């Protein structure tokens, strides 16, 4: 009896077009799901390997002197205090400069410039900047600032990093504001609220999490940028707070130390990599926790 039922089901599957289509869809779905899981596993494998190696090699270089002493000469004891300070100053100033410009431009594109020639032109230029290699931005600032002032400087590095922040924040802000339902805007307009207040009190507030995420993405990107700083801030073996002179930074120091044959420099380079990774991770965790609690 069971054999007859199974044979009937198989015969129906072979003769019924809808059954055949359903079986084909199940096969395609299984293949697509398998390929997706394999791609995810491939990416996670390399990510986990990189994180393990960063922790394994970076923790060994952590010490109090890492945060209190300057970058040392070969085969000598030292730390990364000047590079940590330089990176913090340049990344912080670049974020402070680029974030307001990016948010204001993103608000314009989402709320005012959807179909205007200025909005389309701004969006096109922003897409070019977003896809431009960071070394091109570094060369641009070198030609515009460094070559004219005849010196590498921290300010040149700040400008190069700010040009990387701006397009990321613009794109994220525009996308997040575009996701806000128009019903919220129309309800505010119906109550007589002016547009500038609708943007500040309703749309930006509703898109706050996405905008902050865009700022964090830009911050994470510039924290590890090396090429723009090689052409702008260069480096400095000693502590300096003068942004008008060459200034040390973690990415450039890591690049220089990691390429060297000296063991102490290589250990400091891995410690710097670990600090950058830990800092970006901590910023993301704190921001997500803060936003979740506020919501």
3D architecture notes:
This protein has 295 residues and is mainly alpha-helical. The chain has helices spanning 2-15, 17-59, 64-68, 81-111, 117-131, 134-149, 154-178, 182-190, 195-206, 208-223, 227-231, 250-258, 263-294. The chain has 13 helices and no strands. The longest helix has 43 residues, at 17-59. 32% of the residues are buried.
Give me the secondary-structure topology.
Blueprint: H1 2-15, H2 17-59, H3 64-68, H4 81-111, H5 117-131, H6 134-149, H7 154-178, H8 182-190, H9 195-206, H10 208-223, H11 227-231, H12 250-258, H13 263-294
Helix pairs in contact: 1-2, 2-13, 4-7, 4-10, 5-7, 6-7, 7-10, 8-9, 10-13, 12-13
What structural category arises from helix and sheet content? mainly alpha
Regions with little confidence, pLDDT below 50 for 5+ residues: none
Intertermini distance = 60 Å
Please give the share of residues in helix. Answer: over 70%
Q: What's the helix count?
A: 13
Mean pLDDT: 88
**Overall 3D geometry?**
globular
Note the main attributes of this structure.
mainly alpha, globular, 295 residues, single chain, 79% helix, 13 helices
Concise description?
The chain has 295 residues and is mainly α. The protein has helices spanning 2-15, 17-59, 64-68, 81-111, 117-131, 134-149, 154-178, 182-190, 195-206, 208-223, 227-231, 250-258, 263-294.
């Amino acid at each position: 009896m069971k054999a007859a039922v199974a044979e009937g089901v198989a015969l129906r599957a072979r003769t019924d077009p809808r059954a055949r289509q359903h079986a084909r869809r199940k096969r395609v779905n299984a293949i697509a799901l398998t390929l997706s899981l394999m791609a995810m596993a491939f990416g996670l494998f390399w990510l986990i390997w990189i994180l393990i190696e960063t922790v394994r090699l970076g923790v060994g270089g952590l010490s109090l002197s890492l945060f209190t002493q300057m970058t040392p000469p070969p085969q000598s004891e030292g730390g990364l205090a000047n590079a940590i300070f330089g990176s913090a100053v340049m990344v912080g100033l670049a974020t402070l400069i680029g974030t307001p410009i990016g948010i204001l431009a993103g608000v314009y594109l989402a709320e005012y410039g959807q179909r205007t020639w200025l909005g389309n032109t701004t969006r096109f230029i922003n897409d070019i900047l977003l896809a431009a290699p960071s070394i091109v931005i570094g060369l641009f600032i070198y030609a515009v600032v460094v070559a004219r002032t005849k010196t590498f400087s921290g300010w040149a590095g700040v400008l190069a990093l700010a040009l990387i922040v701006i397009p990321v924040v613009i794109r994220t802000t525009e996308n997040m504001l575009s996701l806000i339902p128009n019903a919220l805007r129309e309800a505010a307009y119906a109550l007589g609220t002016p547009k500038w207040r609708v943007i500040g009190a309703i749309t930006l507030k509703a898109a706050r999490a996405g905008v902050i995420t865009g700022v964090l993405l830009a911050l994470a990107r510039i924290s590890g940028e090396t090429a723009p700083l090689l052409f702008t801030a260069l480096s400095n073996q000693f502590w300096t707070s003068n942004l008008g002179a060459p200034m040390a930074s973690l990415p450039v120091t890591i690049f220089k130390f990691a390429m060297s044959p000296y063991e102490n420099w290589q250990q400091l380079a891995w410690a710097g990599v670990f600090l950058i990774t830990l800092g970006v991770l901590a910023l993301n965790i704190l921001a997500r926790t803060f936003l979740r609690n506020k919501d």
